[in-house]
Amino acid sequence: MSRNVVAIVSSILFVVLAALLIVVPVPFVTWRPGNTVNVLGSNEEGPLLEVNGIQNYPTDPSQLLMTTVSTTRVDAHVSLPEALLAHVRTRADALPREVLYPAGLSEDEVREVAVAAMDTSRSSATVAALRAAVQSVTEMPIISSVTLSGPANERLQPGDLIESVDGEEVESAEQVKEIIASREVGDPVVFTVLREGVTESVSVALNADAQGRPDAGVKVSPGYRYAPDVVYRLDSSVVGPSAGLVFSLAIYDKITEGNLFGDEVVAGTGTMDPDGNVGAIGGVRQKLAGAEQDGATVFLLPRANCPDVGALSTDMRLVPVSTLKDAISALQLIDEGKSYAEVPTCG
Question: Which of these, 169, 143, 147, 168, lies nearest to 157 by C-alpha position?
């Protein structure tokens, strides 16, 4: 074979391999800074976050930014050069695909999980904010899911708060489970539930689960009853649990006197549980970049995420928090003009 032929074949192989590197997807997704949303703002339909059934106080002109991360869509793919470029950039990253999109789940299932996480985040944020504002919150069992093939389908609904079972008042999910377990397969059980503010009684005939035990075909979890109603008018494409801290702060600021944020443009991220604990999130560096780009001067983040910040340079004041009360206290100190020595920082 002549040298010219070898050179031509080698060139063709090089081009083919280069093309494959660009075309063939790799099992990674990319993270980049996303948009921010001032949750104390409004759109054409009204306030992005509205609290009804309780006295509200003015929040203008405060700005509280919910931060997001722009990620590869579940139905899209990343090439090797894209993944490498994201990995080396300071404010982007590439990570294994299964971190965001567990294997075996369809596109619709992935979205359902993310939407459910957002719904739980909003509920927990509301409970935490009301408790911080010393408002009444009653814990009671709730129907969190209904099995489509079970006896409760189209009778009980997710979101039903359970007041009693067979006339016996219940205060916890465990009590509900114990009453069901004490019955026989085929027995009718009457659930008295609070549904959209109205009390209803629903009879469910128990069937047998896989082990032959009496089963109503529902999942019962801890739930909460409170008077205020929180309405969200955010873009439905924004999902997941990481806005819990921001939601709690927004609700708290609306239902308490004074201006929590002063002249600062505050941004933040972090999950929130009903007890007011702030949990770690992913993509903190990307959220920091997006917040700074949109003018934030203070950024609240979970204390557990401090190591992820590393040596990232920013002009924002980074304030790590472990609880909602930590966040409220830090913002009050900042509004009073306290120095960095008196306000928590990463490090």
Answer: 143
